[in-house]
Each structure stands twice: as structure tokens, then as C-alpha cells.
Amino acid sequence: MTLSHKTKTTVDEGYSCAEQHSESDALIINEAQLLLAEKRTSLAAMRTGIAVFALPLSVMGLLIATSRYYEVLQVLPLIVPLGVMLLALIVLGSYLILRALTRVHSYDRSIHRLKACHSKLADFLD
């Protein structure tokens, strides 16, 4: 963060706080609430991704634990489609988790910029 004039603060590259100093306090607080709500939504998506990712792992654990009760070659026509479904769930869970992580980091950067431009928010947000 560099301070070039008394009213113009530059935070990160290409982001200027000069035009935001004229905004009302209510609008700034609403913007912070919107960013926090979006972050909360991304965290919920991450929680869903973790649950989707954990399901195939528990199914595989169950199949391994009960493997002595069946012959793999006899149930191969059932295991192959199940393996494909489990792989698809692992990919979906990984996608949801990575997407949520990138969005949470993006919202954190936006909140940090907002706090840097408006010192009143820094008292309320950690």
C-alpha cells in the first residue's frame, strides 16, 4: 500500500481508492456485507465439495473391508461402473473445493482492499 496524496491511496496494482472516498458509509457497509455473504456461500460450496469427495472414499473403504466375501473377477461388471462413478464424484468434489478456494481468496482480497480504503471498516472486520 502506497500513499501518494492525502486523498488518493493505491492498494495493489490498478486499484485506486480516490473515487470511493465520496461513497456513503451505508453503501460501504453494504458492500462489505455483500462480500462476506459471497464468501459464506463459497464456504458452503466447499463444505459440499468435501462431502462429495468423502463419499467415494467411504464406499471404497467398505468395498475393501468386505472384499473377502466376494471374488473380484465375478463382480467385475459391477465394480467397473461403480469405479467410474466414484472417480466422477472425486473429480466433482475436487472441482467444487478448488473453485470455492479460489473464490474465497478473491473475496478476501476484495475485503482487504475495502478495509484499506475505508478505515472505519478495519475496526469491525478482522
Structure report:
This protein has 126 residues and is mostly helical. It has one domain (25-124). 71% of the residues lie in helices and 3% in strands. A hairpin with a 5-residue loop joins strand 1 and strand 2. Helix 1 (25-65) runs antiparallel to helix 2 (76-117). The protein starts with a strand and ends with a helix. Mean pLDDT is 85; it is low at 1-11.
How do you describe this structure in short?
The protein has 126 residues and is mainly alpha-helical.
Name its key features.
71% helix, disordered N terminus, 126 residues, 2 strands, two-stranded antiparallel ribbon, mainly alpha
Major sheet details: 2 strands, antiparallel
Question: What is the residue-mean pLDDT, rounded to a whole number?
Answer: 85
Outline the low-pLDDT stretches. 1-11
Q: What structural category characterises the helix and strand content?
A: mainly alpha
Q: Gap between N and C termini, in Å?
A: 18 Å
Q: Give the percentage of residues in beta strands.
A: under 5%
Strand order of the largest sheet: 1-2
> Helical percent range?
over 70%
β-strand number: 2
Computed Rg: 24 Å
With helices defined by DSSP (H or I, 4 residues minimum), what is the helix count?
A: 3
